[in-house]
Specification:
8 helices, globular, about 25% strand, alpha/beta, 6-stranded mixed beta sheet, disordered C terminus, single chain, 3-stranded antiparallel beta sheet
């Protein structure tokens, strides 16, 4: 088990611009964790630090077990990168990178496409799929790897309500299968629907950590209370 994941006084700066400041937290196995905050709060950068795509400027990040940690966790981005090949081949390629034996790749890939409702589009070029379908394909690539932890960075941003429902259904399936979900969002309704625990970020700092029901019923920080009421200004047009 690679969890818990522990961050100790983690900071990150881009050039001279501080983005994450002194964050300490512990991500446990089990219930879904939501990184919540306005655009520009630092959610995406913190998630990339946790996943290992970025190295902290200071502080430390440790998994409980480091053996093959990169293959035991996965991340799906707001705008997933699609290879110039079919939907099926995109999933097969992810399995190839993970070292899955060649004879097992296509059956596993087809099973993953089944899971996200894309089996009928297996032969279609990935880059002509709709935004929602591409996001489900990205989730299929993750599903095929059976990760212990799945990081989701605003996976339903800019999608229509129907596509959002489809993506949330797949996320619940991951959760039901035992994958730990760590998801960034600024959508309060989505946090309520999918989260068990909230990590609330404001201007690059962890301001509050609480069970989702308690967070929405009795926030302990003025920043969280203002955000819940819709009073916090958006910092930028896209999250850091």
């Amino acid at each position: 088990m690679i969890l818990p994941l522990t961050l100790q006084d983690v900071s990150y700066a881009s050039g001279r611009q501080p983005i994450i400041g002194g964050v300490s937290l512990r991500v446990e196995a089990g219930p879904s964790t939501i990184l919540l905050g306005a655009n520009g709060a630092g959610k995406s950068v913190l998630m990339r630090l946790m996943h290992g795509l970025l190295a902290p400027t200071s502080g430390s990040i440790h998994w409980n077990e480091m053996h093959n940690v990169r293959r035991r966790q996965a991340m799906v981005f707001q705008r997933p990168v699609m290879l110039r090949r079919s939907a099926l081949a995109n999933v097969v390629y992810a399995l190839e990178l993970a070292g899955v034996p060649a004879a097992e790749r296509e059956p596993q890939a087809l099973a993953a496409l089944d899971e996200v409702g894309l089996r009928h589009l297996a032969a279609r070029p990935a880059r002509v799929l709709s935004g929602g379908e591409q996001q489900r394909l990205a989730l299929a690539r993750a599903w095929a790897l059976h990760p212990e932890v799945l990081f989701l960075d605003e996976p339903t941003a800019n999608l229509d309500p129907g596509a959002v429902r489809e993506i949330e259904t797949v996320i619940r399936a991951f959760d039901a299968a035992g994958t730990k979900i760590v998801m960034a969002t600024h959508n309060l309704g989505q946090a309520r629907r999918l989260g068990d625990e909230v990590l609330f970020l404001h201007q690059g700092r962890l301001v509050e950590q609480a069970p989702v029901e308690l967070f929405f019923a009795r926030p302990t920080s003025p920043e969280a209370a203002a955000f819940i009421k819709g009073e916090l200004p958006w910092v930028s047009s896209s999250d850091r």
